[in-house]
Design goal:
alpha/beta, Rossmann fold, 2 domains, six-stranded mixed β-sheet, globular, binds adenosine-5'-diphosphate
Length: about 300
């Protein structure tokens, strides 16, 4: 569906993205992890076509992005951006209908309204259609933006693959809202819809992503399944924080920050908290043993 080939991008002659190659296939969530300034948002801009790479290319369903007409591209990929500040008194339905503009050029039809309501239903927000957007909670607002993005890529030919690009969609959400939003995004995946999601929460990525790209100074520091990619060495190197990787009883890696490299150098040795967390690792592993199905128990 979406292929990035050897992408590089510069700002003020400094490389912000360097030689990135990967693909996103329908039915999967690819998470991008990396510290602030690693180039995650820039990467989404390159994949969406809003920025052009200095080198390399992006293809969507086999076509180079610059070869799409802008409205045609808008119907195949949509973006949920990091910062959306809307202060005008729009209703939720108005916001979702913005996603239909590439289809109707501002002349809304009954079908557009029906699609917008359907998209709100997909994110469990049909009941919010007539509410003012500004009066919603952060979690509700984020679901409305996902509905807007879904309405944008909804069209009759269900055999055409589409991609949703989301930049830190859980940034201002509490843990419960974050998990609910990620559950919802997973439920939307299909054999013609894939997603790339920039995340700061490593544990959300571990639980919800099929694959993870680690981005460090614009370079790919790792790509693979959460279990392949999230090792103590890789996560520690990425964020400059010593980490332990535990595993939940159902086998999902769970990353626990122990101490920053600076703190370790200052203290010159293992801190009491690191020792405590090591003992936690042991007890979690024994929990995992306890929960693992016994051979022949099914
Ligand atoms: P991330 O999303 O991982 O925090 P960004 O893609 O926003 O990283 O930024 C990557 C690099 O590009 C950073 O060094 C940042 O300072 C720089 N950068 C981002 N936007 C601009 C801009 N508009 N002008 C100049 N530099 C920018």
């Amino acid at each position: 569906m979406l292929q990035a080939r050897n992408l590089s991008f510069y700002r003020n002659s400094t490389a912000v993205i360097s030689s990135l190659s990967f693909d996103i296939t329908p039915g999967e969530i690819v998470a991008v992890l990396g510290p602030n300034g690693a180039g995650k948002t820039t990467l989404l801009h390159l994949l969406s076509g809003s920025e052009k790479p200095a080198q390399g290319e992006v293809l969507l369903n086999g076509t180079l992005l610059p070869n799409f007409h802008s409205s045609e591209l808008a119907c195949l990929r949509s973006v949920v951006s990091q910062k959306v500040h809307l202060s005008l008194p729009y209703t939720v339905l108005d916001i979702v209908l913005l996603g239909r503009q590439p289809h109707n050029r501002g002349r809304e039809t009954e079908q557009d309204r029906a699609i917008a309501r359907l998209a709100l239903g997909n994110v469990q927000a049909a009941h919010l259609a007539d509410r003012r957007y500004t009066e919603l909670s952060g979690g509700e607002q984020q679901r409305v933006h996902v509905a807007r993005a879904l309405a944008q890529i909804a069209h009759n030919d269900s055999s055409v693959s589409r991609v949703l690009l989301l930049d830190e969609p859980t940034a201002h959400l509490d843990p419960g809202q974050s998990y609910r939003l990620m559950d919802l995004l997973r439920s939307l995946l299909s054999n013609t819809l894939g997603m790339m999601i920039v995340l700061h929460d490593v544990n959300l990525a571990a639980r919800y992503a099929d694959r993870i790209i680690l981005l460090s100074h614009g370079r790919q520091a790792g790509i693979g399944t959460p279990r392949e990619v999230l090792t103590p060495a890789s996560v520690s190197a990425l964020y400059g924080v010593e980490t332990a990787v535990l595993h939940t009883p159902d086998g999902v890696p769970m990353i626990v920050p122990l101490q920053s490299f600076v703190a370790r150098e200052e203290k010159g040795g293992e801190t009491p908290s690191a020792a405590l967390l090591r003992s936690g690792t042991e007890s979690l592993q024994s929990d995992a043993e306890h929960y693992r199905p016994k051979a022949g128990s099914r």
